[in-house]
TrEMBL record:
Annotated InterPro entries: Cholesterol_7-desaturase (IPR050584), Rieske_2Fe-2S (IPR017941), Rieske_2Fe-2S_sf (IPR036922)
GO MF terms, alphabetically ordered: dioxygenase activity
Subcellular location: Membrane
Lineage start: Bacteria, Pseudomonadati, Pseudomonadota, Alphaproteobacteria, Caulobacterales
CDD domains attached to this UniProt entry: Rieske_RO_Alpha_N (cd03469)
Alphabetized UniProt keyword annotations: 2Fe-2S, Dioxygenase, Iron, Iron-sulfur, Membrane, Metal-binding, Oxidoreductase, Transmembrane, Transmembrane helix
Domain Rieske as annotated: residue spans: 25-137
Protein name: Aromatic ring-hydroxylating dioxygenase subunit alpha
The keyword Transmembrane appears for this protein: yes
């Protein structure tokens, strides 16, 4: 018989543009963003999160609300616990302190004759993993369920781990589903991104790209860049690129030019239902790329702004909740995303391994 005491599994709605993938890793911050002893407030999937690095150098995350009177714990300070010497967060309102795993360690207003088991007081904690210079946070489906992850954050290929050459971030007024679809849309480039140095807006080509399933997603398998992609020519040699998408919202492009590499990572982190943070990060050991990085940084920022402007324009139509028309082959990646998301929810609720529903395919479009 099922355990009647176990909390119910939370099922997300499958409607496009609603709900979030949970029990999953999301990009939270770069390692360099977290300074020892500094408390920082984030909002992730609509939840207030205190993300910080303790004075021992370890990253951690707890819910950024004191259970006493709801003051943000991030507005307090990190102090050594008087009893153990371990770092604790002190609430700015009444001085309650909490360990980095969320347990209360002290309620200063209590007198000696007022016994209270303060250790029974807790704030929600989140599993955090720091690797390759990035901090990932595991967002669970139910605060009452154990927060221990059953899988690891992604390990990226190539030259990741050192200091990034370019980092750009912007908040889009969009649910993550629309942001993901915009990220993988191959046909909007000639109309939204019309930089002369990137791609001709006049000369569009018919393209055919091979795709195959990958862990929690899919990849456009390694190929030579399109002939109308001008920026690649600057790198010299014969670039070969592979573009991978992985749930819940990560896209990375790995470019090889001989023995040199470039990795461009885009992470989508939901702030709440109508805001998504887009973070673009680039690493490279290619001398030419490093030399033109200031120009490329300007271009990356321009791309984000153009996409953001289009999101705002799209919102004018979305507020009427219209039906959306998806076509083959240009929108097939968007359809795949919805299939992957559906399988994610199904495998969590049915407590079975994730089974990638996608098959190898070649898609064609003009752009």
């Amino acid at each position: 018989m099922p355990d009647q005491s176990a909390p119910p599994i939370v099922k997300e709605r499958l409607v496009f543009g609603q709900g979030f993938i949970r029990d999953a890793w999301y990009f939270a911050a770069l390692s360099d963003d977290l300074k020892a002893g500094k408390l920082q407030r984030y909002e992730i999937l609509g939840e207030p999160v205190l993300l910080a690095r303790d004075t021992n150098g370890k990253a951690y995350a707890i819910r950024d609300i004191c259970p006493h009177r709801a003051a943000p714990l991030s507005a307090g300070k990190m102090i050594p616990d008087p009893k153990t010497g371990q770092p604790v967060v002190q609430c700015p309102y009444h001085g309650w302190t909490f360990g980095t795993q969320g347990g209360c360690t002290a309620v200063p207003s209590l007198t000696a004759d007022q016994p209270m088991d303060v250790e029974r007081i807790r704030v929600r904690s989140y599993a955090v993993k720091e690797q390759q210079g990035m901090v990932w946070i595991y967002m669970t489906a139910d605060a009452r369920r154990p927060a221990e992850p059953d899988h690891e954050p992604p390990v990226l290929p190539g030259v990741v781990g050192g200091k990034p050459i370019i980092v750009e971030s912007m908040d889009f007024d969009s649910h993550i589903d629309h942001a993901v679809v915009g990220l993988m849309d191959p046909a909007h480039g000639p109309y939204v991104h019309q930089q002369w140095w990137w791609r001709s807006s006049k000369k569009q080509l018919e393209k055919a790209k091979a795709f195959e399933p990958r862990e929690l997603g899919f990849a456009m398998v390694r190929h030579a860049p399109s002939k109308n992609s001008r920026a690649y020519r600057i790198l010299g040699g014969a670039p070969a690129t592979e573009i991978t998408f992985r749930l819940p919202g990560m896209r990375y492009e790995h470019i090889e030019i001989g023995e040199r590499q470039i990795l461009g990572l885009t992470c989508l982190t939901p702030v709440h239902t109508t805001k998504t943070r887009i973070t673009q990060i680039f690493w490279s050991d290619h001398a030419i790329f490093r030399a033109i990085a200031p120009i490329f940084k300007y271009g990356a920022k321009a791309f984000l702004k153009q996409d953001g402007d289009m999101v705002n324009l799209q919102n004018e139509g979305l507020k009427y909740d219209p039906s959306l028309l998806w076509i083959d082959d240009a929108d097939t990646q968007a359809k795949w995303y919805q299939q992957l998301k559906k399988e994610w929810v199904a495998h969590r609720s049915e407590e079975r391994p994730f089974a990638n529903p996608l098959k190898p395919a070649t898609l064609k479009w003009t752009s």
